[in-house]
Write a structure and sequence with these properties.
Strand content: under 5%
Distance between the termini: 40 Å
Protein name: Multidrug-efflux transporter
Keywords: Antiport, Cell membrane, Ion transport, Membrane, Transmembrane, Transmembrane helix, Transport
Helix content: over 70%
Number of domains: 1
Shape: globular
Membrane topology: Multi-pass membrane protein
Main location: membrane
Number of helices: 18
Order of helices and strands: HHHHHHHHHHHHHHHHHH
GO molecular function: antiporter activity; xenobiotic transmembrane transporter activity
Number of strands: 0
């Protein structure tokens, strides 16, 4: 037991690397959560539009985030292989990629009306979705750039710096969010546009802070952060070779969720609003788990960089145990105290009686979330380990097939042809997480990932 706690790759090291990332994800969760709460108090329509607008933005952005963030694994394996001077070059390839992604996201904002016309939501909600989506897209490049820059620290296990940047950004973003939505003090009352603007300013601030911390003479001497600024064709393509499947995996996962939300929106604004509430609360489970997922990537990548497969297995299993601990705590909160959580989303103008049915629906759906949180914890830990080894193609195909066969096709059939209710449709989400858990666990146990090395394969 002492070895599992204190050994190399033990739970203490998982927590040392992962907890700052959990705090970073938690700060992002709090920003999104308060954003939804503020918009819920602004109007029911802005609450309904907020998650579909932000989720649609994230569906497209997450591909680029997945590619840019995969520099984490390269940095970790280079550090494990005692090649720190390669770190700066890897981070720069992620930066160049982020700048290209920024151009695409800005162009995508032009197609916002056509995108949300397909959803079939009410005209007022569609208009708000378009506004929010456009603001987020214009600033998305700053977020992708910040993610790429952050790998300089997280890939080396310096995750406390990532945490501090995220916390500082949250402290600025939350009051700014309120001020721009409701028009507090000297700020104009912008509603959902203010929420998008505040988020964009927060993303830009993160990128600036990382740049200030990275580009220093000492870091250039150790990691080549200035001298490696050129676009390295071979290294860039290496990052694309492993990073693109990671980005596609992220995209397919989020596409499935976004498509599900869009379908639920066809059941009415209240059904969409309840779904928004539940996914917002689920972020308190899933986003911190993503922090531990990245910790699993880093620790497994570092161990494999030094060709220590036993340590990689040990770290991965301890990451899963840590994920389970978090999931159990969050599930208990959802089961024991659903009412107060949902009351925070009560829209302006709704008294307790008017909100009662939405609250009742939300309380039942939170039991679903509590059930899938445990499965999600196992899936997240093992998928992080597989990605840390470079097994990104398997993860990509798993996410793609799972999303199509659980989150896209069955909900569409249930809603369009069988007039199914909210509770029946949400069983598809539970099934999706169970499939991911089972497939990731089986792939990990078979052990093919142990022979993979992103830097070894690239040097051949």
């Amino acid at each position: 037991m002492a070895s599992r706690w204190t050994g190399k790759g033990g739970i203490r090291e998982v927590l040392s690397v992962g907890l700052p990332l959990v705090a970073s994800m938690a700060s992002s969760t709090v920003m999104q959560f308060t954003d939804r709460v503020f918009l819920g108090h602004y109007s029911l329509e802005t609450l309904a539009a907020s998650i579909s607008g932000s989720m649609s933005n994230f569906v497209f952005m997450c591909f680029f985030v997945g590619v840019a963030s995969y520099a984490n694994v390269f940095v970790a394996q280079y550090m494990g292989a005692s090649q720190p001077r390669k770190v700066g070059a890897v981070v720069w390839q992620s930066i160049w990629f982020a700048l290209l992604a920024w151009i695409f996201m800005c162009l995508l904002a032009l197609g916002a009306p056509a995108i949300f016309a397909l959803a079939g939501h009410s005209p007022e909600v569609q208009n708000l979705e378009v506004i929010y989506f456009r603001f987020l897209n214009i600033f998305s490049g700053a977020n992708i750039l910040a993610v790429g820059l952050s790998t300089f620290f997280s890939g080396r296990g310096r995750t406390r710096i990532v945490m501090l940047v995220s916390l500082f950004t949250a402290c600025i973003n939350i009051p700014l969010d309120y001020a721009l939505i409701f028009g507090a003090g000297p700020f104009p009352r912008l509603g959902i546009a203010g929420a998008g603007l505040a988020t964009g300013i927060g993303w830009g601030l993160s990128a600036v802070l990382y740049a200030v911390l990275i580009f220093r003479p000492r870091n250039d001497a150790l990691y080549g952060v200035f001298r490696s600024c050129r676009l390295d064709g071979a290294l860039f393509m290496r990052l694309m070779r492993f990073g693109i499947p990671s980005g596609v995996q992220f995209f397919l996962d989020m596409f499935g969720v976004a498509f599900f939300i869009m379908l639920v929106g066809r059941m009415g604004d209240e059904a969409l609003a309840v779904t928004n509430m539940i996914f917002s609360l689920d972020n308190f489970s899933s986003l911190p788990l993503y922090g531990l997922h990245v910790a699993s990537e880093i620790l497994v990548g570092r161990a494999l960089g030094s060709n220590n497969t036993e340590q990689a297995v040990f770290a991965a299993k301890n990451a899963v145990l840590t994920c389970l601990g978090w999931a159990v705590c969050i599930a208990a909160v959802f089961v024991l105290a659903p009412g107060p959580l949902l009351e925070m989303f009560r829209p302006a103008g709704y008294d307790a009686a008017a909100f009662a049915q939405m609250r009742h629906t939300g309380e039942i759906l939170l039991l679903y979330v509590a059930a899938w949180a445990i499965c999600e914890a196992v899936a997240v830990g093992f998928l992080g380990a597989l990605k840390g080894a470079g097994d990104t193609r398997f993860v990509m195909f798993l996410m793609g097939w799972s999303s199509m066969l659980t989150l896209v096709i069955p909900p569409f059939l249930l809603i369009e042809f069988f007039d199914a209710g909210v509770f029946t449709v949400w069983l598809c989400v539970v099934l999706n997480v169970f499939v991911l858990m089972a497939a990731a666990s089986l792939r990990f146990r078979r052990g093919k990932w142990k022979d993979l090395r992103v830097i070894a394969q690239a040097s051949q």
